[in-house]
Amino acid sequence: MVAAAVRTIFTQPHRQAAGQQLHEVVKALDGRWPQAAKVLADAKDDILAYMAFPPEHWTRLYSTNPLERLNREVKRRTDIVGIFPDQGSVIRLVGSVLMEIDDEWQIERRYFSQDSMRKLKEADAALLSSPGALQLGPIR
Predict the structure, then answer these.
(1) 81 class by beta-carbon count within 10 Å (0-12 exposed, 13-18 middle, 19+ buried)
(2) 46 and 92: one domain?
(3) Residue 74: what pLDDT?
(4) What DSSP designation does 50 have?
(5) Is residue 138 in a domain?
(6) DSSP label at residue 52
């Protein structure tokens, strides 16, 4: 039941609605599962952090598939070798696997489209160009 209630938070279309739904879930859980409610309430900013990104990124952000794929590839390559003579050889092999996969992602694959990445830059530029965005008070 707790998992189903928490999933309702992530189906909301924007941060304000998701924050309201989180509040409702915390209230609903507080009577029977007060520790779970406290964890959710304390982690509100972390739970809703993905909503700072464009909606096109949301499904990609909560998935760990690329990381799991990377770990499987590293494990596959190290299992082929079996026993390493020293720590340096492990670092060299894993480093070369990571560099190879990085090259592949730079050239062939795009996890996020260029249009959606452009939205991130536009949002950053809007924050920097807005008046008073980076004003600090006097230091005492």
Answers:
(1) exposed
(2) no
(3) 93
(4) G
(5) no
(6) G
